[in-house]
């Protein structure tokens, strides 16, 4: 019998990696600092790599990937575009992504608590995703 908590946690992590990649892609071309652009590209690569690992695990559990919540994705897009129209600076990008990292971290920690019977592999992946988010948030501080 499949552990439903494992599948649910993996799906939430999958949606989180997709949301992060989309958010980075929305702003990376607007970044003027080469160092910041490299930081974002590297973080996007980490998210994509972990997302591929999550996708493989979902397939092993005979489950499908999960897309990010459409409302959350739409609200993020609106917020990003409105803020960038007012101030298209690296500081604005750092602010937007820091907010996204904080929301992602909060959600992932909630899911870890909610899906307590998920297997250790899935919990480790979720913690790794939290770590990627926290690292990006910390690294963006110098651009705020």
Radius of gyration: 15 Å
Query: And the CATH topology?
Result: Ferritin
> In CATH terms, what is the architecture?
Up-down Bundle
Residue ranges: pLDDT <50 for 5 or more in a row?
none
Q: How many distinct domains? A: 1
Number of strands: 0
Looking at this structure, what is the CATH superfamily? Answer: Ferritin, core subunit, four-helix bundle
Q: Characterize the overall form.
A: elongated
Q: Would you give an account of this structure?
A:
The protein is mainly alpha-helical and 144 residues long. The protein has a single domain (4-143), classed as Ferritin, core subunit, four-helix bundle (Ferritin). The protein is built from five helices and no strands. The protein has helices at residues 4-27, 34-60, 70-86, 90-114, 120-140.
């Amino acid at each position: 019998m499949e552990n439903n908590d494992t599948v649910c946690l993996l799906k939430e992590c999958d949606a989180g990696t997709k949301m992060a990649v989309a958010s980075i892609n929305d702003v990376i071309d607007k970044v003027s600092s080469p160092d910041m652009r490299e930081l974002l590209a590297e973080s996007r690569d980490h998210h994509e790599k972990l997302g591929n690992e999550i996708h493989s695990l979902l397939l092993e559990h005979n489950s499908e990937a999960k897309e990010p919540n459409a409302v959350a994705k739409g609200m993020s897009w609106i917020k990003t575009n409105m803020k960038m129209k007012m101030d298209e600076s690296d500081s604005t990008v750092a602010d937007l992504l820091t907010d996204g990292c904080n929301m992602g971290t909060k959600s992932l920690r909630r899911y870890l608590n909610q899906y307590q019977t998920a297997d250790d592999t899935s919990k480790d992946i979720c913690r790794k995703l939290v770590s990627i988010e926290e690292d990006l948030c910390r690294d963006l501080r110098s651009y705020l």
